């Protein structure tokens, strides 16, 4: 599936507020869906790039040789999931923000895994 379709699939998950595909070497969004005034996806993409880089540095300093599957940030009313992936040598992540009252976290993580497997660039 292409980027646009992948992001539409992410937005079809229960409680989805916004989704983006981000190149975490540059911090640039390759595509986005949803968002709005309450969730600026460009700001989220840049900020989450810093989160991914910091976690990667920390794991390296600890000598942990495992790859990051995803990063979960829980807020009072939202979940933010950052799912790392590699395509054609590019280091990317799928970012999904969810309304906690409407989302099923396990199903959202499963949905992102499925989208990751089917995403082609």
Distance between the termini: 8 Å
User: How would you spell out the order of helices and strands?
Assistant: HEEHEEEH
In percent, how helical is the residue content? 25-40%
Mean pLDDT: 92
Strand line-up across the major sheet: 2-1-5-4-3
Number of DSSP E strands: 5
CATH superfamily: Dynein light chain 2a, cytoplasmic
Report the principal-axis shape. Answer: globular
* Unreliable residue stretches: none
CATH architecture: 2-Layer Sandwich
What structural class do the secondary elements suggest?
Answer: alpha+beta
> How many whole angstroms does the radius of gyration measure?
14 Å
Organism: Frankia nepalensis
Protein name: Roadblock/LAMTOR2 domain-containing protein
How would you characterize this protein structure?
This is Roadblock/LAMTOR2 domain-containing protein. It comes from Frankia nepalensis. The protein is an alpha+beta fold and 121 residues long. It has one domain: Dynein light chain 2a, cytoplasmic (Beta-Lactamase, 2-Layer Sandwich), CATH 3.30.450.30. It contains three helices and five strands, in the order H-E-E-H-E-E-E-H. Strands 2-1-5-4-3 form a five-stranded antiparallel beta sheet, sandwiched between helices. Strand 1 and strand 2 form a beta hairpin. It starts with a helix and ends with a helix. The model has no long low-confidence stretch (mean pLDDT 92).
Topology:
Layout (H helix, E strand, L loop, with lengths): L2 H9 L4 E8 L4 E7 L6 H22 L7 E5 L3 E10 L2 E10 L5 H14 L3
Antiparallel strand pairs: 1-2, 1-5, 3-4, 4-5
């Amino acid at each position: 599936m292409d980027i646009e379709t992948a992001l539409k699939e992410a937005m079809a998950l229960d409680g989805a507020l916004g989704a983006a595909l981000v190149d975490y070497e540059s911090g640039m969004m390759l595509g986005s869906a949803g968002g709005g005034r309450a969730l600026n996806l460009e700001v989220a993409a840049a900020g989450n790039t810093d989160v991914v880089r910091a976690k990667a540095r920390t794991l390296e300093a600890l000598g942990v040789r495992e790859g990051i599957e995803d990063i979960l940030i829980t807020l009072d009313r939202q979940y933010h999931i950052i799912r790392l992936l590699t395509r054609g040598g590019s280091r990317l992540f799928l970012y999904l923000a969810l309304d906690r009252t409407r989302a099923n976290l396990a199903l959202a993580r499963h949905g992102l895994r499925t989208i990751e497997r089917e995403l082609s660039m």
